[in-house]
Amino acid sequence: MESTDPDLRARRIAEAFVRAIPHAGLLGMVMREAGPGRAVIAMAYDTRLIGDPATGVIHGGAVSTLMDTCGGAAVLTHPEAPLSTATLDLRIDYMRAAAPGQGIVAEAECYHMTRSVAFVRAEARQEDGVRIAAATGAFTVERGT
């Protein structure tokens, strides 16, 4: 019997979404939380993700991938339950570089959905809670026929 708990449903969808993306696995992304229209994904610090060897800072591309993936998971967990999604537009404002040695946690919320487009807000923070980036995005919405 399928659970009717919306948080459990969202968690299962978000976890399956992250597992289905090989790049997310290579970057070490792990689901932390999910609920209707929201997701939290963590990415541990890994020397393979360093963008500047002199500073040890994680590459901005890894951060943007984390935020993009988290945004997609938030769309798929929305109560209107789209079948699939893809990024149309993602604007990321980097506030600061992540501190070397710190993992990053992204949190995204799908705050509005039309027939064909979902709108998302996201933030990325270091493990210690310091905000490093904020994003807004638009994602496709594919519904069943």
UniProtKB/TrEMBL annotation:
InterPro entries: ACOT13 (IPR039298), HotDog_dom_sf (IPR029069), PAAI_dom (IPR003736), Thioestr_dom (IPR006683). Transmembrane segments: none annotated. Pfam families: 4HBT. Keywords: Hydrolase. Residues 56-132 form the Thioesterase domain. One of its GO terms (molecular function) is fatty acyl-CoA hydrolase activity. CDD domains: PaaI_thioesterase. PANTHER family: ACYL-COENZYME A THIOESTERASE 13 (PTHR21660:SF1), THIOESTERASE SUPERFAMILY MEMBER-RELATED (PTHR21660). Belongs to the thioesterase PaaI family. This is PaaI family thioesterase. It comes from Histidinibacterium lentulum.
